[in-house]
Amino acid sequence: MFMRRLVNSFFHRLYHYRYRLIRSYMENPHRIQQAQLQELLLFAADTEWGKSHFFHDIRNPEDFRQAIALTDYEDLKPFIARMMLGERDVLWPGQINWYSKSSGTTNDKSKFIPVTPQSLYKCHMRGSWDTMTLYYHSRPQASQFADKSMVMGGSLSRFDPFPKTIVGDVSAIMIQHMPWVARPFFIPDFETALLANWEEKLEKLALAGARTPNVVMIGGVPTWTVVLFRRILELTGKSNMLEVWPKFQVYTHGGVSFTPYRHQFQSFFPSPAVDYQEIYNASEGFFAVQDKLDEEGLLLLLNNGIYYEFIPMSEWEQSNPKALSLAEVEVGKNYALVISTNSGLWRYLPGDTVIFTSVQPYRIKVSGRTKQFVNAFGEEVMVDNTDKALAEACLLSGAEVREYTVAPVYFQGNAQGGHQWIIEFVKEPLDLQAFTRLLDLNLQRINSDYEAKRFRDLAMLPLSIQVVPNGTFHNWLRAKGKLGGQHKVPRLSNHRNFIEEILAQVGA
What we know:
Blueprint (H helix, E strand, L loop, with lengths): L1 H26 L1 H16 L3 H5 L8 H7 L5 H12 L13 E5 L8 E4 L2 H22 L9 E3 L5 E3 L7 E3 L1 H7 L9 E2 L2 H4 L4 H14 L3 E6 L1 H15 L4 H4 L5 E4 L8 H7 L6 E8 L2 E5 L8 E3 L5 E7 L21 E8 L10 E8 L2 E8 L3 E2 L6 E2 H15 L2 E10 L8 E10 L4 H15 L1 H7 L9 E4 L4 H8 L17 H10 L2
């Protein structure tokens, strides 16, 4: 115990030093970002991509915008495919042997994002340390290295055409490279943490959690963490997680909005002393961390090997939308994220949209996905809108939602259209019709475009809800081979493909 306290004290001092560095870029964001761009260009200048785009001649952000068009995964896929077969100096210097496998939300085709040594240690790992730093700064009494934390990782596998290449979830790659000095502070053992079979892993995670009373922190996607906690409570016979982990301090979450899950987690941890810290990370990079635990907005990480640009969503449909620098963004406006990174992604669109909550310092919140929205009738509904409307409806009705998805309903002829919601409840509302009306009214209040289309039912009918049995979304993901922490149910779709698959599965 003495040794653990000594280690925790050491990390306190280490985080204090790291916080001073974070403060420096909070105070000098534009200088830091300019330096990041120059460093990326210099490092990759002699790669195939750098030579073909004349990196040696780029002097400023405007030159950079002129030299490189906006890219997405399909643009970079041929280059990444060659890199996975061992080709060197393509998008980034050297031979890159690690790739984060990501399917986004529901695409059948996987994306393979290079994880270079620079992106692993200066972006992903540093982002994790920054998360801890900012938490320790907010909570000086924190003792994560005096007790245990739980990790929920993915899995790794070799790439058959070129066995030196290893693919897997970015969480698994980070676990594989975790410093040996940190490993004793985490459960489960790393062999368990990296199991490929998600259902087997979940059971072993639950057993490890049930047997370890001194867990103080866990991180993961809320969807799967809820499943884990329920299983731990089944195994222990306890009524809440604080009876299992009485010293628990903080849940670090990301991947999906926490808003629909907050009430469930407060039931798991019925104490105001438990903190919830949001992070914004992905296969492409570690972007932001909640630095003020009682405020909305995540601090944008500006010195982790990423150069940021932002496309106003008002210009998204244009053939050549202008990307803005950090200095040009405004609070409250919706932007599509553009990144250039030390993993060899250049002016890349990861598909996320963000809203700035502050510019001194720069804080953001994730508002949705560029491909996850419903705009069939000019309503322009984003995930941020539906999450908030649903959370408020649940709060007022006492209902609890496990998963949901939304798609448009198109009517024949001149009849109005509308939205169909498929919801899997943990606790159904007593009056589904009243809940539906409440949800519709909340969405109108939050989104003025939706409100306008719903006026007197002239353009859109009220939304409808189809309740599906427990396990529906889990079974749908399993059928698509997408169980696990990296895979998420699509909240919104501007088509009916996913909804029709789910309805067919339940025979509706």
